[in-house]
Amino acid sequence: MFAKFKPSTPLGNSQAQFKSQLAKNASQLNRSFPTAENSRKKSSQLRQTKLAVCRKDNKLKYEGFVEQAAEIRPKKEFVYVPTPNNLEKSSCKVSVKKEAPGLPSSPMLKPGRNLISLIGRVDFCLKTHKMYPDINAIWNVYGQLLRIIVGKRGEHTLLVRNKDSGPVLQGIYYDFEGDMSTWSPGCFVHLVGQFIGENRLKTFKISQVSDIDWQQQFMRIENVTTYILMQNTVHK
């Protein structure tokens, strides 16, 4: 019932052309494609193919893959490089605030913090002041009153020394209330003040001392004070 339809292009011719094209490219088709392992080791997984247009039949022609340059990776080696000495020293330094010029860093060396109080008889205080003239001290001097010289504007000069012998100390005191009006030579006194000369004491406070207070252990106190002053001088 139905007539057979013949194609415009004979089947034999198309198969012959296909076989001839395969024959020409047999050498290229027989090449093995790179596996996944080889592609990862040698080059990237995606590779660019070579395609060309045939002049005879204007068809694409496969010519293989584009050769890629092998990537040379540098060998990585662990090299220990020590840090410079300058950086190590700078990291250990602690920032210190600069103090105002003229003020010491130690609080005990600031003005008024090195004040000490010394106790002794007249000869000991005079000798110690001569040995340490720059010491900042409040002197507690015990001695026997020889004479009181009254000056102008309430100034009184007390001549004091050890009992019956020794050098004489001049205690300058301003008595505005008349506390020394009842004092008489020969009594024992206690003077508190600071030296303003070799044997002159600027007196802040005075008081009479009984015979019992005068007989206390001055020798022991003076020896301990001498030892402490010598130790401080050696360590400086």
From TrEMBL:
Polar residues bias: start-end ranges: 10-37
Q: Which domain of life is it from?
A: Eukaryota
For region Disordered, the annotated ranges are 1-48
For this entry, the protein name equals: Uncharacterized protein
* Provenance organism: Drosophila yakuba (Fruit fly)
